[in-house]
From TrEMBL:
This is Sensory histidine kinase/phosphatase NtrB. NCBIfam families: PRK11073.1. It is an enzyme of class 2 (transferase). It comes from Piscinibacterium candidicorallinum. The keyword Kinase applies. Signal peptide: none annotated. Member of the two-component regulatory system NtrB/NtrC, which controls expression of the nitrogen-regulated (ntr) genes in response to nitrogen limitation. Under conditions of nitrogen limitation, NtrB autophosphorylates and transfers the phosphoryl group to NtrC. In the presence of nitrogen, acts as a phosphatase that dephosphorylates and inactivates NtrC.
């Protein structure tokens, strides 16, 4: 059997669903790129094998194929769980289409249920974050002008006051005005600085962040590299990406106080290439999947849905801007950032399109 991708079927690689074509003899004739990614097996490994072979519950798939060939239905949709030896079960929606002729293949189409939920959640979060950021920008501009007036008035008033005790009050006003000015500048900073685009090697970015972390936490913190060396360079703003990853990693390190003291703290930088993903409503053939994973206590449940909102912080004295800025920088690279957290495992996932 020719295991190269047939030209007539190559268009299936543009489809986001995992598509499997099953030949009349019950063997796999073709799988698209999304199916290779879902099953973690290549066309070369799958083609010519029985459709049931890759899965512990493959008999269920084989029975569906037989029913389709026997014309018991023309099209059937169901939810099932794909189980591969040694892998996490994958809940999917499966659509089985019967062959038009005895020589035609049965078409199996799989869509991860988690992926459907993720796309829906991503669209909702993107819209909500856009509104929040517009509100913050407008609020920052509204604060900026009167803040300058308050500071200037306090400076003019200070030399007119007769006693040092009274002048202390004006110094408090000036100090607090400066603090608020710094906060406003940080809120507006991502929208002022021009995008400095160049060729970016993501592993150089991660190595830079790793060196900064280890300099800040020389004892008790282990930063593990889990890199896919096949990740290609892409066009981006290196400084913004460093700042985005650093903000996430520093938040993780600050949450690992107890683990650092116990010499068990770990942050893992993981990179992979993923295929056929939807990011910000756009379909991309390839994308960078970057994870920052720590073994800390996890994000408090009441904060998990709000961690990317401006001025929301789970740490005493935190500004609540680190993750907001990280999200802004990643979105400027047409990417997304999400978080999955539970006690002992917090996983920030960054997806960025690749050329």
């Amino acid at each position: 059997m020719n295991l190269a991708r047939p030209a007539l079927l190559s268009g299936l690689d543009l489809v986001s669903s995992a598509v499997v074509l099953v030949a009349p003899d019950g063997t796999i004739h073709y799988v698209n790129a999304a199916a290779e990614s879902l099953f973690d097996l290549s066309l070369r490994q799958l083609a010519g094998g029985a459709v049931a072979a890759p899965f512990e519950n493959g008999a269920e798939l084989a029975e569906l194929v037989t029913e389709a060939r026997d014309n018991q239905f023309s099209r059937k949709r169901l939810e099932m769980v794909l189980r591969r030896p040694g892998r996490e079960p994958v809940p999917v929606t499966c659509v089985v289409t019967a062959p038009e002729t005895p020589e035609s293949p049965v078409v199996l189409e799989f869509q991860e249920i988690d992926q459907q939920l993720r796309v829906s959640r991503e669209e909702q979060l993107t819209a909500q974050n856009a509104m929040n950021k517009e509100l913050v920008r407008n609020l920052a501009h509204e604060i900026k002008n009167p803040l300058g007036g308050i500071r200037g008035a306090a400076q003019l008033l200070e030399p007119e006051l007769p006693s040092a005790d009274l002048r202390e009050y004006t110094r408090v006003i000036i100090k607090e005005a400066d603090r608020l000015q710094l906060l406003v500048d940080r809120l507006l900073a991502p929208h002022r600085r021009p995008h400095q685009v160049g060729d970016v090697n993501i592993h150089e970015v991660l190595e830079h962040v790793r060196s900064l972390l280890l300099a800040q936490y020389p004892h008790g913190l282990k930063v593990v590299r889990d890199y896919d060396v096949s990740v290609p360079e892409f066009r981006g703003d290196r400084e913004q990406l460093i700042q985005a990853v650093l903000n996430i990693a520093q938040n993780a390190a600050q949450a690992l106080t107890a683990e650092i003291a116990a010499q068990t703290a770990q942050i893992r930088f993981r990179t992979r290439v993923v295929r056929q993903v939807t990011i910000q409503k756009q379909r991309y053939r390839l994308a960078l999947d970057l994870r920052v994973i720590d073994n800390g206590p996890g994000i408090p449940e009441d904060l998990r849905d709000r961690i990317f909102y401006p001025l929301v912080s789970g740490r005493e004295g935190g500004s609540g801007l680190g993750l907001t800025l990280a999200q802004t920088f990643i979105e400027q690279h047409f990417g997304t950032i999400e978080c999955d957290s539970r006690p002992g495992h917090t996983d920030f996932q960054i997806l960025i399109p690749l050329p």
